[in-house]
Amino acid sequence: MTLARTALERIAATGVVPVVRAPSADLAVQAIDAIRAGGIDVIELTMTVPGAVPLIRELTARFGDEIVVGAGTVLDAETARACLMSGAAFVVSPILDVATIECCRALGVPVIPGALTPTEIVRAARAAGDVVKVFPCGALGGASYLRSLLAPLPNLKLIPTGGVSLKNAGEFLKAGAFAIGVGADLVDVAKIRDGQAGEVTRAARAYVEEVARARA
User: Fold this and answer.
1) What pLDDT shows up at residue 2?
2) CA 169, CA 191: separation in Å to the nearest integer?
């Protein structure tokens, strides 16, 4: 089984990709620990976290196959390559950058480019061949927009991100989402900073339960 297939299968099985943004590597690690304790074994560490690339190396060394560590907010091929050399299992971008896609495909690692309109999404799917991040999905109607996209394009694998919360997670999944990308509604760095990591763990557990309910 290829690395790409394994990572995508883990993402699909988990159904939730927590987008980890934090002002420090330490807070990011605490958030990841809290999310993992809640039963989610996939994380997207964004390049906005200070020292994100070496942190990816640290996380993959620490957890091995226990969690799938991806790199997020990757805007160019140079950054993508650095992340992959550090052990990132997948790469996510808010945009469609062909050079980034080519880099990931050459190294056999899945890349999830960002797009919003039907034309952009199809172009991204054709270029990447994996999964497309629909961002910011909430700005165009959320789950109803995703459902409208998939009606004429049912073979697309889409991860809606932006505006996803526990309240509407089930709607996105029932609309046909391959998985959902969740930011601050799950990865609440303020709670981590305030010593309330347990709240983040409970939120992660609630998302796992919501995925199970929506897919039942």
Assistant:
1) 46
2) 21
pLDDT at 119: 96
Which residues contact residue 163 at a Cβ distance below 8 angstroms, ignoring those fewer than 6 apart?
136, 137, 138, 139, 142
pLDDT tens, residue by residue, 24-56 = 999 999 999 999 999 999 999 999 999 999 999
Integer Cα distance of 108 and 135 in angstroms: 24
**Is residue 93 over pLDDT 50?**
yes
Packing angle, helices 197-215 and 25-37, rounded to 10 = 50
pTM: 0.95
Cβ contacts of 216 within 8 Å, gap of 6 or more? none
HEC assignment per residue over the chain: CCHHHHHHHHHHHHCEEEEECCCCHHHHHHHHHHHHHCCCCEEEEECCCCCHHHHHHHHHHHHHHHCEEEEECCCCHHHHHHHHHCCCCEEECCCCCHHHHHHHHHCCCCEECEECCHHHHHHHHHHHCCCEEECCHHHHCCHHHHHHHHCCCCCCCEEEECCCCCCCHHHHHHCCCCCEEECCCCCCHHHHHCCCHHHHHHHHHHHHHHHHHHHC
